[in-house]
Each structure stands twice: as C-alpha cells, then as structure tokens.
Amino acid sequence: MKRKSLKRVLNLCVLAVLLVACNHSESSDNFALKSVDVVTEFEAVETDDITTETPKLELKHLKIIKSANVRYKVKDVKIATERVKRITEAYNSYISDLRFENNLYKKENRFTLKVPSKDFDVIMDSISSVAEFIEYENITTKDVTSEFIDVEARLKTKLEVKERYESILRTKAKSVEDLLGVEEKLQRIQEEIESRQGQLKYLTNKVAFSTIQIDLYETVEYKEEPEHYKKTFLSEIKDGFTSGWDILKLFFIGIVYVWPFIIIGIVAFILIRKRLKK
Q1: Within the chain, how many helices (H) and strands (E) appear?
Q2: Which of 1, 63, 169, 177 shows the smallest number of beta carbons within 10 Å?
Q3: What is the DSSP track for 131-167?
Q4: CA distance linking residue 218 with residue 108, whole number of Å
Q5: Which residue blocks in 58-117 are alpha helix, DSSP H?
Q6: Contact 153, 97 (CB under 8 A)
Q7: pTM (2 decimals)?
Q8: d(CA 88, CA 90)
Q9: In the beta sheet, which residues pair with residue 217?
Q10: Closest-CA residue to 130 (of 190, 164, 196, 81)
Q11: Nearest CA to 83 among 12, 132, 16, 145?
C-alpha cells in the first residue's frame, strides 16, 4: 500500500512539472509572436515612408502642357517687338501669328509664341524685361500624364492584337472567307492604331512646345480726327489728271455706243450735199 501511494505521489509530481513546462512554452510562443508582429509593423512603416518618396522621383516623367497670356505696356512697340523676336530666335522658338493695330489712342502688337517647354520660364523672364509696365501675366498648366499613359497603353494593346491577327493570317487562315475576315479586322485595328498614334503625337507636341500669347502696346498722344481732310496742291493735280482721263474714257465709250447713228448721219450728210449741188 505504501508503494502504491508513493507511485501516485510521484505521478502527480511529474504531471505538475509537465503542466508548468507547457504553460511556460505557450507564454514564450506568445512573446515570440508579439515580437514578430512588431517587426512586421515596423517594416510596413518603413515601406510606407519609401512609397511616399517615389512620386518625387517621378516628377520628371510628368506630361505638363504650359501656356501663358501676358500684356505689357512698352515705350516703343516696334523696338519691343524686335527684342522679343531676337529672344525667340535665341531659344529656337517661333511666332505663329501676329497682328498689328494702330488707332488714335494706342499702337498694339499681338502675337503668339511657340517655345520649348524646357525654356518656358527663362523665356518668360526675358520677355518681361521689355515691359515698361506689366498689366497682367497669366500662366496655366495642364497635367496630361494620365491621358498620355492611357493612349500609350491602348496603342500597345492594339499593336499586340494586330500581331496576333497577323499570326492567324499567316498560319491558321485557310479559306478565302477566313482571309477576308482577318484582313477586315486588321484594317479596322490599323485605323485605330493610326488614330492612337495621332493622339500621342498631338500630346507630345503640346507638351514639347508651350504657348505664350503676348500683347505689346504703347499709348500715343490723342489727336481728334478731322471731319474733312484738306488736299494738297499735288493731290489736286493728281486728281485733275485722273478726272481728265476718266472723262476721255467716257467720251470714247460713248462713241462706241452711238456708232450706228454716227454712220447714218454721215451718209445722210453726203446725200444731202449731193442733192444741193445738183
């Protein structure tokens, strides 16, 4: 009996030790899991920090269309226009249109510049130096990056589809009906590809060259417009020659109109003269 009781006590002790060991292992596992979670969260934070910096690296890849509209008062429109032309030539720019206006109040020259986008800011600073007074300067930008990427992606997809249809045309199209069907689809895809290429070229040109609308004007001393202009002596002589020539032309034209009557008059005059002699 004593041996049995000792065995039971020993068994109970062993079970107690095993239970304590299991609890300790679970707590250490929990601690390990918690430490892993912390490391993961830290790595996630570091990853977030890195992703926030990536857009700064991609700024140079943005597709931006720049344009400006400025109006400057200048001392002399002609001289200021020549200076602007020299600036545009120095930066490989050009004037797309030009309109000059002169009235009783002011002289004004309006023109549009097409300038390389990379030199847009430098050219704007250079042009503003001709101004005596800056009435306004408006600069606008338009981000077409998403549109540009979308057109590029669609174009790439269309080119891949075209390659697949060309492969089908070479290998799998056996009958005339198959050939005509594939060629029709290829023609339609080619039209879409050319349309996308045109859009891409248009966006590329708009991004590469910026537009600057410039108004240069100078004020002039107001003079009332006379109701009647007095002609000079030379102008009157010129008008006299012109009027005399016009009268001479009318005379000959009148003779041409009445030539039948002239002939009849001449014949009648000759007949009457002969009768009188008899």
Answers
A1: 7, 5
A2: 1
A3: -SEEEEEEEEEEE-HHHHHHHHHHHHHHHHHHHHHHH
A4: 7
A5: 77-90
A6: no
A7: 0.53
A8: 5
A9: 73, 108
A10: 81
A11: 132
Per-residue tokens: 246:
């016009």
Around Cβ 158, how many Cβ atoms within 10 Å?
Answer: 19
More confident position, 262 or 77: 77
* Alpha-carbon gap, residue 166 to 186, rounded angstroms: 8
Write out pLDDT tens, residues 31-80: 333 333 333 333 333 333 333 343 443 566 788 999 999 999 999 999 99
Structure-token pair, residue 63: 């597709």
Helices 120-128, 77-90: inter-axial angle, 10-degree rounding: 160
pLDDT value, residue 79: 92
| Mean pLDDT lowest among 7-21, 185-199, 256-270 | 7-21
C-alpha span between 208 and 198 (Å, rounded):
15
Beta strands in 7-75 (DSSP E): 64-73
Amino acid at 81: T
Contact 96, 206 (CB under 8 A): no
As a whole number, mean pLDDT of residues 112-133 equals: 91
CB–CB of 226/91 below 8 Å? no
